[in-house]
């Protein structure tokens, strides 16, 4: 691998970590449970790596591992986004008094 | 680069931007749901971009895996909200599993094709160690939360030494692989030892430490995704993993601060054993009251603060608590909720339960803010919370929770504390709040007893 690729990946990691710290420190404490389920769903982006392994079918072994990994990641994507939305729907402002 | 490859990279770029926006919109409950949409959009973009990948020759197994994953994911998103901590632990386990499996598959594929560079080997080593220990560690945490595995800390002599030695050997084997990647027999050693370490790491951790542990496992799962991104040279994976990892880390730090403990202390301290406390010998008298007494105190107050704890979640009493809130606000009583950061079993646990019961979120107040109001509060109602209101944390230097920031319930004029019995809490520490002169104990199951309080309040309203 060209050395530059390694360094550009290190830059991405560094910048994303800084952005992450900034953005997440601003998340209201009220929403820390939905925050965890949302970041969990987002990090299931690992599915992109698994999809290629399951789809390129280079060996039976790798296809099996890839398929299980896709299933695990899709579980997190589906349940993570759905439950985050379900929880967020419940956070309501005080109703104006009638 | 072909057009398809450009499209794939463009979709990853869009996904990274949407993920950051998604978390940004979570800063406010008003925009938060838009954040979920952005997340779904980013994920869809990345998946479509990946499916364009020319190396994919067959979609059969991908489709099957997506169907299976959705079939597990949909029911997992419909669990009762009291079960959210164990669902979260399970999802960290799935994240760890995916990282471990992809790392293993890539190791053998690259080894076979002679493409296993030292850099790739290092990234895979970190990915597999983190992925495997997150997998079993999170399963153990979920087991403890579901009470399949005993929630009490399990300790033995030399435990920390055994654990660290195990992790050390795993890391050593991974290091050897850097120099001799062809000795594939070392690879299963790394996998098995990391899996074992995950189990042993969580064994000594007690229920009250779950908020910290779940946050820490969240950080590990994120870092495993980052390592996978480095191995696969995939920048959107690095970005998403870094966002997840920094979120887990920030939450862990908040949880640790809220317990006045360090990371090492949480992981190696085996908190929560029953300790013979200094005050147990002298039998303290407590005043026990009826729901009627509690209702009288509450309805004659001008300001009431409710302190919920894990006991409220166990008893599923959040709806009764909301009814008390309704009864009192109807009479013009000012009612607020005091939320300790580590109340419950995961960060933000109490907020979600109370939001489910339709308590407006403006009434949910953080510890530091509510503590300023407590000296002017007439009645504090403690529901299933224990250590987070124990004044010993402020003055008893011998107490295991000394130094932990608490909600100053004892500074209010009256305290009503609901508890199942006089057994000590998770930390096994006696709570002097219960024997204070201005405290009225309300023994019994929270749901039943608070239901009686609601009835008493409602009865008064109709007279």
Notes on the structure:
- The complex is a heterodimer of chains A (98) and B (463).
- Chain A has 98 residues and is an all-alpha fold.
- In chain A, 78% of the residues lie in helices and 0% in strands.
- Chain A contains four helices and no strands.
- Chain A has helices at residues 3-25, 32-43, 47-56, 60-90.
- Chain A is flat, with a radius of gyration of 19 Å.
- The mean pLDDT of chain A is 92.
- Chain B has 463 residues and is of the alpha/beta class.
- Chain B is 59% helix and 7% strand.
- Chain B is built from 17 helices and six strands.
- A six-stranded parallel beta sheet of chain B has the order 3-2-1-4-5-6.
- In chain B, helix 4 (84-113) packs parallel to helix 8, helix 5 packs antiparallel against helix 6 (159-179) and helix 5 (118-145) runs antiparallel to helix 8 (210-232).
- The longest helix of chain B has 30 residues, at 84-113.
- Chain B starts with a helix and ends with a helix.
Structure classification of chain B: alpha/beta
Number of helices of chain A: 4
Taking all Cα atoms into account, the compactness measure Rg of chain B is 25 Å
Helical content class of chain A: over 70%
Major sheet characteristics of chain B: 6 strands, parallel
Spatial separation of the terminal alpha carbons of chain A:
67 Å
**Which strands sit side by side, in order, in the main sheet of chain B?**
3-2-1-4-5-6
- Please report which band the strand proportion of chain A falls in: under 5%, 5-15%, 15-25%, 25-35%, 35-45% or over 45%: under 5%
Which structural category do the helix and sheet elements of chain A fall into?
mainly alpha
Radius of gyration of chain A: 19 Å
Principal-axes shape call of chain A: flat
- Strand segment tally of chain B: 6
Q: For the terminal residues of chain B, how far apart are their CA atoms?
A: 81 Å
Give the largest interface: A-B, 83 and 115 residues
| Uncertain segments of chain A | none
């Amino acid at each position: 691998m060209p050395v530059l690729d390694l360094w550009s990946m290190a830059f991405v990691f560094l910048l994303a970590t800084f952005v992450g710290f900034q953005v997440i420190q601003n998340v209201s404490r009220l929403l820390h449970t939905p925050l965890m389920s949302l970041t969990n769903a987002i990090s299931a982006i690992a599915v992109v790596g698994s999809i290629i392994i399951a789809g390129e079918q280079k060996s039976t072994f790798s296809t099996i591992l890839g398929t299980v990994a896709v299933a695990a990641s899709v579980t997190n994507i589906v349940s993570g986004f759905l439950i985050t939305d379900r929880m967020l729907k419940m956070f309501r402002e005080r109703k104006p008094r009638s | 680069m072909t057009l398809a490859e450009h499209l794939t990279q463009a979709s990853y770029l869009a996904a990274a931007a949407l993920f950051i926006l998604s978390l940004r919109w979570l800063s406010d409950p008003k925009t938060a749901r838009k954040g979920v949409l952005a997340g779904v959009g980013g994920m869809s973009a990345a998946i479509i971009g990946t499916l364009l990948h020319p190396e994919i020759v067959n979609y059969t197994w991908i489709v099957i895996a997506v169907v299976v994953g959705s079939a597990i994911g949909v029911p997992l998103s419909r669990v009762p909200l009291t079960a959210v901590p164990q669902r979260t632990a399970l999802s960290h386990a799935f994240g760890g599993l995916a990282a471990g499996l992809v790392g293993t598959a890539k190791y053998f594929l690259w080894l076979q094709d002679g493409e296993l560079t030292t850099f790739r080997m290092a990234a895979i080593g970190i990915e597999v160690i983190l992925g495997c220990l997150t997998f079993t560690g999170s399963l153990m945490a979920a087991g403890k939360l579901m009470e399949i595995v005993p929630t009490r800390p399990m300790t033995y002599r030399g435990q920390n030494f055994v654990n660290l030695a195990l992790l050390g050997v795993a890391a050593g084997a991974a290091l050897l692989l850097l120099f001799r990647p062809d000795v594939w027999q070392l690879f299963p050693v790394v996998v098995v030892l990391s899996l074992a370490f995950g189990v042993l790491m969580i064994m000594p951790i007690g229920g009250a430490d779950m908020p910290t542990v779940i946050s820490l496992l969240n950080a590990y799962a994120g870092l495993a995704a980052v390592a996978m991104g480095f191995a696969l040279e995939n920048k959107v994976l690095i970005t998403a993993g870094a966002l997840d990892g920094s979120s887990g880390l920030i939450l862990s730090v908040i949880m640790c601060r809220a317990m006045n403990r360090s990371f090492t202390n949480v992981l190696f301290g085996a908190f929560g054993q029953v300790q013979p406390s200094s005050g147990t010998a002298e039998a303290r008298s407590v005043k026990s009251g009826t729901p009627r007494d509690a209702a009288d105190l509450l309805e004659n107050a001008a300001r009431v603060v409710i302190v919920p704890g894990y006991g409220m979640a166990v008893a599923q009493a959040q709806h009764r608590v909301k009814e008390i809130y309704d009864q009192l606000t109807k009479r013009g009583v000012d009612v607020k909720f005091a939320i300790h950061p580590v109340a419950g079993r995961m960060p933000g646990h109490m907020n979600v339960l109370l939001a489910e019961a339709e308590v407006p979120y403006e009434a949910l107040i953080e510890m530091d803010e509510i503590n300023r109001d407590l000296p002017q509060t007439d009645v504090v109602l403690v529901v299933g919370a224990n250590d987070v209101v124990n004044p010993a944390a402020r003055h008893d230097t011998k107490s295991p929770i000394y130094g932990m920031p608490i909600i100053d319930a004892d500074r209010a004029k009256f305290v009503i504390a609901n508890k199942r019995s006089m057994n000590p809490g998770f930390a096994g520490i006696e709570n002097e709040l219960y024997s204070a002169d201005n405290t009225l104990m309300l023994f019994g199951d929270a749901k039943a007893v608070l239901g009686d309080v609601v009835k008493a309040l409602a009865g008064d309203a109709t007279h």
